[in-house]
């Protein structure tokens, strides 16, 4: 596993994919697409409107957290089947990764690379428990 300091956020693609400029050391920098490791976020580009709403909220959560962080470190694993590096994102020296926070806060499911579990109701329930479910954006 390698660890890199993130120089800038280039694009938040969706709740589990980000484009970052990373410091490789020795004044070398690289733009790279990362798949946020260990999670699967709802899709923000889908015809399923319920999933799309949750996907856009996951994307907004990631964007807000990354844009307000003073320091971001990405710890990489291997590449996924699409050529993206799997990365664990750590903000402002926190011990818990953003990846884990997304699961804990109901913005993503745990994912190990196998079969995906798209239980939208479980995410909604978790967010209701935490008080982060917004009825205006998520009418029943």
Summarize the structure in words.
With 140 residues, this protein is an alpha+beta fold. The chain is 27% helix and 36% strand. The chain has 3 helices and 7 strands. A 5-stranded mixed barrel has the order 1-2-3-6-5. The protein has a two-stranded antiparallel sheet with strand order 4-7. The protein is globular and about 50 Å long.
Q: Characteristics of this structure?
A:
single chain; 140 residues; alpha+beta; OB fold (Dihydrolipoamide Acetyltransferase, E2P); five-stranded mixed barrel; two-stranded antiparallel ribbon; 3 helices; 36% strand; globular
Beta-strand residue fraction: 35-45%
Number of domains: 1
Low-pLDDT sequence parts: none
Let me know the largest β-sheet.
5 strands, mixed, barrel
Q: What is the highest CATH level, the class?
A: Mainly Beta
State mean pLDDT (0 to 100 scale). Answer: 91
Task: Break the fold down into its secondary structure elements and pairings.
Elements: E1 2-14, E2 17-25, E3 28-36, E4 39-40, H1 49-68, E5 72-79, E6 85-91, H2 98-104, E7 109-110, H3 120-130
Parallel strand pairs: 3-6
Antiparallel strand pairs: 1-2, 1-5, 2-3, 4-7, 5-6
Brief characterization of the structure:
The protein is α+β, with helices and mostly antiparallel strands. It has helices spanning 49-68, 98-104, 120-130; strands at 2-14, 17-25, 28-36, 39-40, 72-79, 85-91, 109-110.
């Amino acid at each position: 596993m390698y660890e890199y300091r993130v120089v800038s956020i280039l694009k938040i693609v969706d709740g589990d994919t980000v484009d970052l400029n990373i410091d490789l050391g020795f004044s070398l920098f690289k733009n790279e697409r990362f798949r946020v490791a260990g999670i699967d976020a709802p899709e923000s580009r889908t015809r399923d409107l319920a999933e799309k709403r949750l996907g856009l909220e996951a994307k907004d959560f990631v964007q807000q957290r990354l844009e307000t962080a003073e320091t971001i470190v990405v710890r990489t694993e291997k590449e996924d089947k699409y050529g993206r590096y799997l990365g664990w994102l750590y903000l402002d020296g926190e011990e818990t990764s953003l990846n884990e926070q997304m699961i804990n806060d109901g913005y993503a499911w745990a994912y190990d690379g196998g079969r995906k579990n798209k239980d939208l109701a479980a995410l909604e329930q978790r967010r209701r428990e935490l008080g982060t479910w917004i009825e205006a954006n998520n009418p029943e």
